Amino acid sequence: MFPKWFDDWNAKNPTNIFGPAILVGIVGSAVFAAAFFVSVGQPYATASTQTGPRGTGMSIPEFKYVLAEGDPTIEDYYTDDPIVPSAGDPLAKDIYENVQVLGDLTEDNFNRLMNAMTAWVSPEQGCAYCHGDGDLETYGEDNLYTKVVSRRMIEMTQNINESWDGHVNANGEVGVNCSTCHRGQNVPSEIWFKNTPVLNTNMAGWSANQNRATSTSQATSLPSDQLEKYLLDYEQITVHDLESRVAGSPGDGETRTIQHTERTYSLMNYFSNSLGVNCNFCHNSRAFYDTEQVTPQWGTASLGISMVQELNNEYLVPLAEVLPEDRLGPVHGDAPKLACKTCHKGYQQPYQGLNVIADWPELATTETPEYE
Predict the structure, then answer these.
(1) Could you tell me the sign of the dihedral formed by the alpha carbons of 135, 141, 143, 144, in that order?
(2) pLDDT score, position 98
(3) What confidence category does residue 217 fall into, taking pLDDT thresholds of 50, 70 and 90?
(4) How, if at all, do strands 59-63 and 46-50 pair?
(5) What are the φ/ψ torsions at residue 76 (nearest 5 degrees)?
(6) What residues have CB less than 8 Å from 324, skipping those under 6 apart?
(7) What is the pLDDT of residue 171?
(8) Rounded to an integer, what distance in angstroms lies between the CA atom of residue 169 and that of residue 209?
(9) Is residue 35 scored above 80 in pLDDT?
């Protein structure tokens, strides 16, 4: 291909072209990678939430691309501006029959809230989900259990916003409304029923409580009764003694055993999955047991535990007398109950901190709502 003299010269004067070629390739790849990351961003970049004093490692890193994804249900959230009442506006209780709650709202705001509840809870069935298929004149009847339950849930929502402000508004006004749990579904996701014993055998005791992947145990071999014991029965959340030998017997009802530890771990695992966080979001990993070294979030979570205990016992458990059989638990026939994940859905704050009470002062208090 080349003249003979050129080939002879190259043979007598060899040149290493591979070294420079590799160097050019490496430099070129580095430039391309740098340009790529500058243009599209670092996919593994993290953002950290500091949960304790600086220098102690008490922070929670999260991938920025995960944070940017956001809660997919936010896009479908329905809201509407409140209507500031005028003097002389007719009230709902003077127009409609059997308005046991929300009767002091003006007709406009009452209907506005009813439309919102339809969008939040029964977007497919519409008003008929609670009021049936009859004419407007029949809407005052309590023939459907859904209406009776809905009335009680309105009272529960008002109680949460009014009495548990320290939990739901810990980091600024957020509040809750029907959509916080329901997200467009008749029955919220992440409700729970009693499900122990988890073994369909004659086995009893602790062995019948664990080593089965259930939804309440978060698909682990940990105990499945932690929500029942701690968020319904008011049992003390605790672990075994720090000493290797302690006085007392596991059967005396007071000595903290390894079983209490396993049940507590099961509850903590549930908390972590519910909020999408790790243990050091609330605890100092150097001393999990020391309440003097916890983070501020621990106090918020403690309020949340007390709140859930009250809501389950005062509002939800009694509904077993109202709900039809197909809405009760499959094992014990108990009413559906809530826990952290029912509202949070895997995020630190429900709806990632979206203020869902700003437009709905009617659900923020049992008193006369304040409109701006």
Answers:
(1) positive
(2) 95
(3) confident
(4) antiparallel
(5) -95, 5
(6) 145
(7) 84
(8) 36
(9) no
Measure Cα distances from 52 to 241, 271, 304, 324 in Å. Answer: 26, 19, 20, 48
- Give the whole-angstrom CA distance, residue 175 versus residue 167: 9
Of 340 and 64, which is predicted with more confidence?
340
179 neighbors 77 (Cβ within 8 angstroms):
yes
Tokens of 204: 């009893």
The predicted-structure confidence for 299-320, as pLDDT tens digits, reads as follows: 999 999 999 999 999 999 999 9
Per residue in 151-177, pLDDT tens?
A: 999 999 999 999 999 999 998 899 999
Beta pairing partners, 170:
172
Q: What angle (nearest 5°) sits at the alpha carbon of residue 192, between those of residues 366 and 173? A: 35
In degrees to the nearest 10, what's the CA dihedral of 102, 103, 108, 109?
-20
Query: Which pair of tokens denotes residue 56?
Result: 């102690």
Query: How far does Cα 30 stand from its chain's mean position?
Result: 43
Residues in the chain, total? 372
What CA–CA distances, in Å, run from 101 to 118, 156, 157, 371? 17, 11, 12, 18
89, two tokens: 């506006």
pTM: 0.84
3-state secondary structure the chain: CCCHHHHHHHHHCCCCCHHHHHHHHHHHHHHHHHHHHHHHCCCCCEEEEECCCCCCCCEEEEEHHHHHHCCCCHHHCCCCCCCCCCCCCCEHHHHCCCCCCCCCCEHHHHHHHHHHHHHHHCCCCCCHHHHCCCCHHHCCCCCCHHHHHHHHHHHHHHHHHHHCHHHHCECECCCCCHHHHHCCCCCCCCCECCCCCCCCCCCCHHHHCCCCCCCCCCCCCCCCCHHHHHHCCCCCCCCCCCCCCCCCCHHHCCCCCHHHHHHHHHHHHHHHHHHCCCHHHCCCCCCCCCCCCCCHHHHHHHHHHHHHHHHHHHHHHHHHHCCCHHHCCCCCCCCCECCHHHHHCCCCCHHHHCCCCCCCHHHCCCCCCCCC
